[in-house]
Q: What sequence folds into this?
């Protein structure tokens, strides 16, 4: 059974838990069986008609997202939200400070000219794994670099919000490594991408 509702600007869904295995934990044979249906689902999401919706980022129940562009949506990771409040002050109070966040945001901003401007529905989790399944997109390495920065900044903000300081320090290291690398030249980008 699934229940959908919304209150005070928040939307939520409650459904029965479905257990499974993470893709990274599947055997080669299981991946081969799983990928065709997964790729069909992702392709179907990319083909969803977006008529009647607007913006970039997480949609409200009426189909509006808060950002005017994809780069703006990614750079919003530096802004606190009601879902993850207080992380900036927590970083300052921890002694780590906002330097790593500002360095990461600056590097991310420098990569935004390489990001796509096509508006599509995507799976909301930007992940660090990527494998070509078609033509190589323009500026692929720069895009991957931007998304890695976004992932690391998101993790840093969330872990600071949750006071998980060992993880914050690890994410600070990742952000600084990515921020100091030239666009698309990070060692964290898979070879051949």
A:
């Amino acid at each position: 059974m699934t229940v959908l509702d919304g209150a005070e600007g928040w939307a939520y869904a409650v459904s029965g838990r479905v257990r499974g295995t993470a893709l990274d934990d599947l055997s080669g044979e299981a991946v081969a069986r799983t990928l065709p249906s997964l790729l069909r689902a992702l392709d179907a999401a990319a083909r969803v008609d977006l008529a009647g919706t607007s913006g970039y980022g997480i949609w409200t129940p009426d189909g509006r997202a808060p950002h005017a562009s994809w780069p703006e949506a990614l750079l919003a990771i530096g802004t606190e939200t009601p879902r993850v409040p207080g992380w900036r002050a927590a970083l300052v109070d921890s002694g780590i400070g906002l330097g790593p966040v500002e360095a990461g945001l600056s590097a991310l901003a420098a990569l935004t000219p390489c990001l796509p401007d096509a508006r599509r529905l995507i799976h909301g989790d930007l992940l660090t794994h990527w494998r070509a399944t078609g033509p190589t997109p323009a500026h692929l390495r720069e895009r991957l670099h931007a998304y890695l920065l976004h992932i690391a900044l998101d993790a840093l903000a969330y872990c600071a919000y949750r006071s998980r300081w060992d993880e914050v320090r690890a994410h600070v290291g990742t952000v600084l490594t990515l921020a100091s690398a030239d666009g698309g030249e990070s060692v964290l980008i898979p070879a051949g991408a």
